[in-house]
Amino acid sequence: MALKHTFFGLAVGFILSGPIGAVLGAVLGSLVPDKVEKDENKPPENRENYNKNRASEFTYSLLILFAIVIKADNKTKKSEIAFIKSYLIKKFGLENAQEMMHILKALLQKNVEAKPVCQQIRFNTDYYFRIELIHLLFKLATIDQHISVEEFDCIKNISIDLGVSNLDFRRIASMFTYSSSSKSQSTFKLEKAYKIMGVEKGVTLEELKKSYRKLSKEYHPDRVAHLGEEYQKIAEEKFVKIKDAYDTIKKDLESF
Questions:
Q1: Which of 182, 84, 94, 183 is nearest to 136 (CA)?
Q2: Is residue 42 part of a domain?
Q3: How far apart are CA 224 and CA 233, in angstroms?
């Protein structure tokens, strides 16, 4: 498969070494240019290049984790593949997306151990970078509004290995849960809101507002501005869900 674009040339930095480098090397082979710098300790030349590298590293890391989650329940769903393809087209354009889909196909044919890959990501990225990874993994796994036990456990283990707190994991997971027939929509929505906000029932309005202010800072889309516009949009989805959860609980508290 001949590369027609320079997208892969952006992938300098930590991903060309360690477990991730080994995984990519196995599937890319000669696709990785020899001239690409492989010294992970080399500082970036400037902020613009640093940001490009970080966005590229994010995508390569995500592609590997996508493959791991897809294989968790031994089922490769067409809807999951379509989601990834659509995501890559929006981010990189059709031609580069097609090239990356070839890489995904190769990754799906390999048994990749998640833990060393996650540990490399953990020690080379900031916390909010890893939060976005978990968010996107849940988007993939729940594309049909259902997530298997195997996929959920896989994402949970990835979250642990990435060093994401249990509270943040549960908050993100709650954003992708769907109502069961045994509960009314209003009851389910309120319970879901409490999980997203990370507060207990019986919280006061003042405590709720304090929690919302804290989460608004932690999950603000500007936190991932260095990853590019597409990732800011993803962060905005979480931001909106937090605001909706806050409004739901606030309305319930004010009704008494």
A1: 84
A2: no
A3: 10
Give me the domain span that covers residue 208.
180-255
Q: How many folded domains does the chain comprise?
A: 1
Q: Rounded to whole angstroms, how far apart are CA atoms 222 and 227?
A: 10
Evaluate whether residue 30 is within a structural domain: no
Range 59-88 average pLDDT: 91
Can you give the pLDDT at residue 188?
Answer: 83
| Coil/strand/helix, residue 2 | coil
Side-chain half-sphere of 47: how many Cα atoms within 13 Å? Answer: 2
- Max mean pLDDT range (35-39, 198-202, 246-250): 246-250
Arithmetic mean of pLDDT, 103-121: 91
C-alpha 103/C-alpha 29 separation (Å) is: 11
What's the CATH number where 226 sits?
A: 1.10.287.110
In a domain, 20, yes or no: no
User: Is 142 part of any domain?
Assistant: no
Residue 47 predicted with pLDDT over 70 = no
**Do the beta carbons of residue 117 and residue 22 sit within 8 Å?**
no
